[in-house]
Design brief:
205 residues, mainly alpha
Length: 205
């Protein structure tokens, strides 16, 4: 149970459902409720498809181009760390992604599905959390289901976006995004250390 909770928290941090709410509101400002619901369903469906693709094919692609998983784990950890630090010290997720709204041509895909929901961190996380040499297919299915449960949370929050935004506001979403960045930082460092240990054949507790 604790392991499932840890996986849920990890994907909650990299996907950041609450931080997506202001982005969604900016994307759909001035549109009617029917259009908003259509955008929500399409964005979550595309995000699920992208993340599941990385679960299934991410490691196969690495093997095809002869990249050791430990090297990817280190590189992925570094990218996750930079992503997390940008959430903490830079513009928060909603602030940075709202700026891209005016250049959007397909609102459900960009910037809502990618990079707001299926962020680079979430894509890397999908690969790192389902490594074939460490997890059985059953464990990978469970991890995928937990990831889908986070996307279900995204779906609910976006359908209730106006109420959520009234409750927490832009500043609240920014604060939560930074807290998620702090959690993600520790996960990223753990991945880097584990990747280094695996690459050099070290035994770590």
């Amino acid at each position: 149970m604790n392991e499932l909770l840890a996986i849920f928290i990890f994907f909650f941090a990299v996907i950041d459902p609450i931080g997506t709410v202001p982005v969604f509101i900016a994307v759909t400002r001035g549109n009617d409720d029917k259009f908003k619901r259509k955008v929500v369903y399409k964005a979550v469906a595309v995000s699920a498809a992208v993340l599941l693709f990385f679960v299934v094919a991410g490691e196969l692609l690495l093997n095809a181009i002869n990249i050791p998983l430990s090297a990817f784990q280190i590189a992925g950890g570094i990218v996750l760390l930079l992503f997390a630090l940008s959430m903490i010290f830079g513009e928060s997720k909603p602030e940075s992604e709202i700026k891209s709204v005016r250049d959007s041509t397909e609102k459900a895909i960009f910037p809502l599905a990618i990079p707001s929901i299926a962020s680079p961190g979430a894509m890397l996380g999908a690969v790192l959390m389902t490594r074939n040499n460490e997890y059985t297919w059953f464990e990978q299915v469970i991890t995928s289901l937990v990831m889908m449960s986070v996307l279900f949370v995204v779906l609910i929050l976006l359908l209730l976006a106006s109420h959520v935004h009234k409750l927490i506001g832009d500043s609240g979403a920014s604060i939560i995004s930074r807290i998620m960045g702090l959690i993600l930082t520790s996960v990223a460092v753990t991945n880097i250390l584990a990747g280094i240990a695996h690459y050099f054949g070290l035994n770590v507790a």
